[in-house]
Amino acid sequence: MEAKEFLRSLRVGNLIQDKNGNLEKVSSLQVLNDVLEKINDDPYPGFYQPIKLTEGFLLTFGFEKRGVEWCLSKSIIDFYYGNEDKSSDVDAYISIDVNEGSHGAEPLLHILYVHQLQNLYYALIGEELELPAEHFDSEE
Predict the structure, then answer these.
(1) Is 18 exposed, middle or buried (0-12, 13-18, 19+ CB in 10 A)?
(2) What is the full DSSP assignment across the chain?
């Protein structure tokens, strides 16, 4: 993911990592003239990078392994992550129960990073998709 794209897609509440691999939660973003100047009061946003979405993160977020896919059911929305046959670029699907039992799966392209999954989850559910506190340094 390009740095500009990564910085534009961040929002307060997202998980990021520093260059040393330490996890941090975005608590503040400061923008000046449409340019991201600071993340968490750090004047060097290039120090941070996206976190690759792995099975470990899916498990920690509460997803369950179902065959070759991972699933998280929340309200009327089922989130599926996985690509059984690897024949397409689709990594994630959502299925929304619109009419009590009628599902329609909608493919989502390239959900590759933790903050992308968090943003999608927040947009659809209205809640943060968060890691338990033990995943962070004791400073927080």
Answers:
(1) middle
(2) --HHHHHHH--TT-EEEETT--EEE---EEEETTEEEEETTBS-GGGEEPPBP-HHHHHHTT-EEETTEEEEEETTEEEEE--SS--SSEEEEEEEESSSS-EEEEEEE---BHHHHHHHHHHHHSS-----GGGS-TT-
In this prediction the pTM is: 0.78
First to last CA, the chain: 27
7-34: pLDDT as tens digits: 888 999 999 998 888 999 999 998 887 7
The pLDDT mean for the chain works out to: 78
- The one-letter amino acid code at 57 reads F
